[in-house]
Amino acid sequence: MMGIFRLPLSTEPDRRHSATMDNAAIFLTFGALFMGGLAADLLGRRLRLPRVTLLLALGILAGRSGLDLLPIEFAEWFSFLTVAALSMVAFLLGGGLTLTKLRHIGGEVLWVSLSIVGVTVALVAFGLIVLGAAPALALIFGALACATDPAATQDAIRQSGSSHPFADKLSAIVAMDDAWGLIVFALVVAMAKGLDGSFDPGLLMEATREIGGAVALGLVIGLALAPLTGRLKPGEPLQAEALGIVFLSAGAALWLDVSYLIASMVVGLVITNRARHHTRAFHEIEHIQWPIMILFFVLAGAALDLRSLAAIGALGAGFAVLRVLARALGGWVGATLARSPAPERRWFGPALLPQAGVAVGMALVAATEFPDHGDTILTLTIGATVLFELIGPAATLFSIRRVDPSSNRSEGDL
Q1: Mean pLDDT of 304-311
Q2: Which of 208, 238, 261, 392 sits at 20 to 30 Å (Cα–Cα) from 306?
């Protein structure tokens, strides 16, 4: 039986040679990407530019919109790297939500995050209707505008080296932002279906199951692992433990078809508040996160097609302008209602401009639910992602430095 599956003798050397060449290309590409990440790190320090933006630009240059240098195999890994990178980010974001910190800034964070989401949906949807978009399509884009990129935002916060309370508030808001965004998106899809005449109550039930299931899963995993977390000494065993927690959370969420972002965030939140030595696991994730983030951001840039920017026209330009205005206005309104310090109020919105993976995921769902608008939804979302991933991290860094002048230095704690 084994003979049936053997390659013809004459082709085996060619196949082995091909595999060797493929492996050589993959290792060379990995090496080049990691060195590119190091260059982005050093350049970002010297020029005070967000390294995320530099990595995305590197990806665009090396990808299909540029020189098309990356092996085709790398496109197949993007889905895995997306889940791995964003699960680590969500875990760390949840880890920042200690009860002490929430008691101190919780009310303020809640006001700001809810205000940004509410104003964004309302202003973007209304503005696009004025520009001629169908009401259902405008509502969808209003919900898509709520999503942020926790990875890019968190990295810009870390790059700033700021220890100001404003940076802590941004971390907490980002942790909540995508949770609110997913909830709002589920509700808006149901409303848009009603406007289209095809409302399905099952959509609300499915959204409730996905969000509630993710919270329940995070609680189960977090409560089960919290008593065991951080008992090992720092080093390789603890790194394996930390990765095991993150990958277990993400894998279980994908298997159960619930939000891996929310599940990972809840696991981090439970462990940071229940585990005695919780900081060790979070520190290990911080230590090993950056290489994966390099691959994630470069491949994200490589996957983007800049030609999509030319196809979205006035609707895309209107979406971009309205989202910037909505984030700024929503952040200011929420901060004013929460009585945040005056120097911080105008900078919450600009600091939360990055947008990436979650928005694209929402767009894929929306395109499936509204096939007549599918091409428009995907094209505009991808084009907006290019724009906000390039300018968003810079806006985050600029906002932090305006609030905390002490972070305005040539070298940060990266």
Answers
A1: 64
A2: 261
Query: How far is Cα 76 from Cα 38, in angstroms, rounded to an integer?
Result: 24
243-252: b or e for each residue (b if 16 or more CB lie within 10 Å)?
bebbebbbeb
Burial 215-237 (b: 16+ CB within 10 A, else e): bebbeebbeebbeebbebeeeee
Closest listed residue to residue 258, CA positions, set 220, 297, 224: 220
Percent pLDDT > 90 in the chain is 5
**Who contacts 271 (Cβ-Cβ below 8 Å, separation ≥6)?**
94, 95, 222, 225, 226, 229, 245, 278, 281
Query: Which tokens sit at 337?
Result: 């209602």
Distances (CA, A) of 237 to 23, 116, 274, 280: 29, 41, 21, 11
pTM, full prediction: 0.67
Phi-psi map region of 409: left, alpha, beta (phi>0 left; psi -120 to 50 alpha)? beta
Cα dihedral value 326, 331, 332, 333, nearest 10: 80
* Other residues' Cβ atoms within 10 Å of the Cβ of residue 135: 15
Tokens of 238: 């603890």
* Each residue's pLDDT tens digit, 140-189: 888 888 878 777 787 778 777 777 778 878 877 876 776 677 677 777 77
**What is the three-state SS of 120-187?**
HHHHHHHHHHHCCCCHHHHHHHHHHCCCCCHHHHHHHHHHHCCCCHHHHHHHHHHHHHHHHHHHHHHH
pLDDT tier at 273, thresholds 50, 70, 90: confident
In degrees, to the nearest 5, what angle opens at C-alpha 386 toward C-alphas 155 and 317? 125
Distance CA 56, CA 61 (A): 9
CB 120 within 8 A of CB 145: yes
DSSP-derived 3-state class of residue 200: coil
Q: What is the pLDDT at residue 277?
A: 59
Residue 67, H or E segment: none
According to DSSP, residue 363 is labeled: H
Task: For 338-374, write each residue's pLDDT tens digit.
Answer: 888 888 888 888 888 887 666 766 776 677 677 777 7
- Of 77, 81, 58, 37, nearest to 296 by C-alpha is 81
**Phi, psi for residue 149 in degrees, rounded to 5:** -110, 100
